[in-house]
Specification:
The structure is a single chain. By secondary structure, the chain is an all-alpha fold. It has a domain of 92 residues: Alpha Horseshoe (Serine Threonine Protein Phosphatase 5, Tetratricopeptide repeat), CATH 1.25.40. Helices cover 77% and strands 0% of the residues. It contains 32 helices and no strands. It starts with a helix and ends with a helix.
C-alpha cells in the first residue's frame, strides 16, 4: 500500500467521529423543530437522514410532521414507500388508516386495519407494535382483536390474558373482562388468588360501578348454570367482601361449608375475620359461634374462640361505662381461654386485651400489670410486640399514678425503635406525660417535631395536643389555667372521674373568658358519659355546639352527640340531625365521611 493511500485512510478514520457528531447534531435539530411545531423545517432536516438510514425514528418524525401540516398526500406516499420495503411492519397499516380517517374515508380506514389483522403472525415484536399503534390511535377494539387473532393462530385461549383485560378495562367492556377471568377459572381453578388480585386492583381503580355490576352479573350467571361449582361460590363470597356485604358473604360461606365438608370451615373463618377487621362485629360473632358449635374437636374451634373474645373486646368503648356483671363475665371468659391455651405468642393479643379490660374497666391495675409483665416473659417475643407491650405497660403505670416509671418505659421504647413508628408513638406518649406534669414548652417542642411523623395517626395526635398547648400558653403567660386543665386531664386519664369533674368544673366557673373553655366542656361531657349519665353528657355537648360552634371542637361534639343519641339514648331523630349538621356545616371534618354513612343508614330505618 502506497504512502498516499495510507494518508487517505487515516484521514477518513479521523473524520469518522466528526461525521457521527454532525449526524447527531442534525437529529437534535430535527427534533427541536418537531417539538416546536415547525414541521416544514423538521422535514427538511429529517428527510435526508431518513433516506440515508431508513430509521423508524426518522420515519415517525416525518409522518407526524406531514400530518401536522395536513399534507396527507405526502404522508401517504411516505407510508406506501416504507410498506413496500418493510411488509412485516404492520403498524404502517394503522398509520395509513389514520390518514383515511382524517379524510373521513372510514371504509378505507377499516380495510387498512383489517389488512393488518389479516397479516398478523405469532411474532411478539410485530404484535406489540401493532397493538401499540391501535392503542395510540384510540382503536381499542382493534387492539383487542389483535390478541384474539393471536389466540386463534396459537390455539391458546388464555394467551395475553392480562394485556387483553387491560384493553377491555380501558374500553369499559367489563363484561368481557370478567368473562375472560371466569374462563380462566374454568380451566385453572388454582388461579383464583391471582384472578382476585387482578380484579381487586381493577375494582379499586374503577371510578363508577360498571365493573362491580358486570362482575356481579357474570358470577350470578355462572352460579345459576353450575350451582355446585365451588370456585364460583368462592368468587361470589370474595366479591361480597369487596362490596362489604358481610351478611351475604357469611350466608354463602356457611352454604359452602355445609355442601363441601372438606372446606373445613375455612371460608366461614375468613369471612368472620374480615368482618371483625371492618367493625362488622355482629357478622364476625355469628361466624365464630357457628364454628364453635362444631365442638372442641374441630380444628378451628380455639381460633374461633379467640376471635370471639377479640370481638367482645373491640365492641367496648372506653368512653362508656361497663356494668359490673358484664365486666365479670368477660373477664372470666378471658381467663378461661388464656388458661386453656397458655401464655404465648399466639395468645399475646388476648393477654394485652385482658390487661386493658382489667385496668380500664375493672380498675384492677395490679392484675393488668401482672399480665403485661408475663407477656414480656414470653420466649422469643418479637421486638415489635415487645415494644407495644412496654408502651401499654407505661400507659398502665401512668394510669396508676407512677409518672416517672411510665416515662422511663417510654424512653426505653423510643431509644430501641428510633426509626420506627413505635418509636414515634413512645415519643408522643412522653410528650403527653410532660404536658400532664406542666412542662408545656418541652412538650410542645417534642410535639412539633412529631407533627411531621410518617404515621398519620401520630402526626394528628401530636398536632391536636400541640395546638391545645400553644393556644392556651399565648393567652395566659403564667400558664395557670393550662396547668389546672392538664391536672384535670390527668385525673380523667386515670379514670378518677369525680375528682376530674370537680377540677374541670372549677375551671369553668372561675374562668370567665378563656380559649380553653370549649375543651373543658368536651371533657366534662366525656366524664358524664363514662359515668353512664348520658342525658347530662348530651346537654353539655349541646352547650358546646351552641356557644362554640365556630371552634375546633364543634365537630367532635356533634359526632359524640350523634353517637350518644344513636347508641345510648335511643333517639335516632336527634342522631340524624347531628350527623346532618356535621355533614353540612363541617365538610372538611375528619368525621364527615363516617357521619355521612351513619346518616344514610338512619334514613333507611
Amino acid at each position: 500500500m502506497s504512502r498516499l493511500q495510507l494518508i487517505v485512510i487515516f484521514s477518513l478514520i479521523g473524520l469518522m467521529p466528526l461525521i457521527g457528531y454532525c449526524q447527531q447534531s442534525k437529529e437534535q435539530l430535527a427534533q427541536y423543530y418537531f417539538n416546536n411545531g415547525e414541521f416544514k423545517q423538521a422535514i427538511e432536516v429529517a428527510e435526508p437522514l431518513y433516506k440515508k438510514t431508513s430509521n423508524k425514528y426518522y420515519y415517525q418524525m416525518l409522518y407526524r410532521s406531514y400530518v401536522g401540516l395536513e399534507n396527507y398526500k405526502e404522508a401517504e406516499r411516505l407510508v406506501d414507500s416504507r410498506m413496500r420495503k418493510n411488509p412485516n411492519e404492520l403498524y404502517l397499516h394503522v398509520d395509513l388508516g389514520k390518514l383515511y380517517a382524517a379524510r373521513n374515508d372510514n371504509k378505507k380506514k377499516q380495510k387498512s386495519y383489517d389488512e393488518a389483522l389479516g397479516k398478523l403472525k405469532y411474532d411478539q415484536r410485530q404484535i406489540t407494535e401493532l397493538v401499540d399503534a391501535f392503542v395510540s390511535a384510540n382503536e381499542y377494539e382493534y387492539a383487542a382483536k389483535c390478541y384474539l387473532k393471536v389466540r386463534e393462530i396459537t390455539k391458546n385461549q388464555f394467551l395475553y390474558l392480562n394485556e387483553l383485560n387491560s384493553i377491555y378495562a380501558t374500553m369499559g367492556n367489563y363484561e368481557a373482562m370478567t368473562q375472560e377471568y371466569m374462563n380462566l377459572l374454568d380451566y385453572s381453578p388454582g388461579s383464583i388468588n391471582s384472578v382476585q388480585i387482578s380484579l381487586q386492583r381493577n375494582l379499586s381503580q374503577a371510578s363508577g360501578t360498571e365493573l362491580a355490576d358486570g362482575l356481579r352479573r357474570a358470577l350470578v350467571s355462572r352460579i345459576q348454570k353450575d350451582p355446585s361449582n365451588q370456585t364460583y361460590l368462592q368468587m361470589m363470597i370474595w366479591f361480597s367482601l369487596q362490596e362489604k356485604d358481610f351478611e351475604f358473604a357469611m350466608t354463602q360461606a356457611k352454604a359452602v361449608d355445609a355442601r363441601f365438608t372438606e372446606e373445613g370451615g375455612t371460608l366461614v373463618k375468613k369471612v368472620a375475620d374480615i368482618a371483625k377487621n371492618n367493625e362488622a362485629y355482629g357478622f364476625a360473632e355469628d361466624g365464630y359461634n357457628y364454628l364453635m358449635k362444631k365442638g372442641k374437636e374441630h380444628p378451628l374451634y380455639y381460633e374461633s374462640e379467640v376471635g370471639l373474645l377479640e370481638v367482645k373486646f373491640l365492641r367496648l368503648d372506653r368512653n362508656y361505662a361497663l356494668s359490673p356483671k358484664e365486666y365479670k363475665s368477660l373477664k372470666l371468659d378471658y381467663e378461661k381461654v388464656i388458661g386453656e391455651l397458655g401464655k404465648n405468642t399466639q395468645t399475646l393479643r388476648l393477654m394485652r386485651n385482658y390487661a386493658q379490660l382489667t385496668a380500664y374497666y375493672g380498675n384492677e391495675v395490679q392484675t393488668a400489670a401482672d399480665m403485661l409483665y408475663d407477656a414480656l416473659e414470653i420466649p422469643k417475643l418479637p421486638t415489635q410486640d415487645e415494644g407495644e407491650v412496654k408502651l401499654e405497660l407505661g400507659d398502665l403505670l401512668l394510669f396508676a399514678g407512677e409518672v416517672w416509671d411510665a416515662s422511663l418505659l417510654y424512653m426505653q421504647v423510643e431509644k430501641a425503635n428510633k426509626n420506627d413508628i413505635i418509636g414515634s408513638q413512645a415519643k408522643l406518649r412522653n410528650a403527653r406525660l410532660s404536658y400532664f406534669t406542666h412542662e408545656f414548652e418541652w412538650a410542645k417542642t417534642q410535639l412539633d417535631v412529631l407533627r411531621g411523623a410518617t404515621s398519620k395517626l401520630v402526626a394528628n395526635d401530636a398536632m391536636e395536643l400541640s395546638l391545645l398547648i400553644s393556644d392556651n400558653m399565648e393567652d395566659d403567660s403564667t400558664y395557670t389555667t393550662l396547668e389546672q386543665y392538664a391536672t384535670a386531664d390527668l385525673l380523667l386519664y386515670r379514670n378518677m372521674l369525680d375528682s376530674a369533674w370537680e377540677a374541670f368544673d372549677d375551671i369553668e366557673h372561675h374562668t370567665l373568658s378563656h380559649p380553653i373553655l370549649d375543651d373543658v366542656l368536651l371533657q366534662k361531657a366525656k366524664i358524664r358519659v363514662k359515668q353512664g349519665r348520658y342525658a347530662e353528657g348530651d346537654e353539655i355537648l349541646q352547650k358546646l355546639i351552641d356557644f362554640y360552634g365556630d371552634g375546633l371542637l364543634a365537630d367532635d361534639a356533634l359526632m359524640m352527640s350523634a353517637q350518644l343519641n344513636e347508641k345510648q339514648l335511643g333517639n335516632p331523630a336527634k342522631a340524624k340531625e347531628m350527623y346532618e349538621k356535621l355533614i353540612l356545616d363541617y365538610p372538611t371534618s375528619l368525621y364527615t365521611e363516617q357521619a355521612r354513612k351513619r346518616y344514610k343508614e338512619l334514613k333507611k330505618e
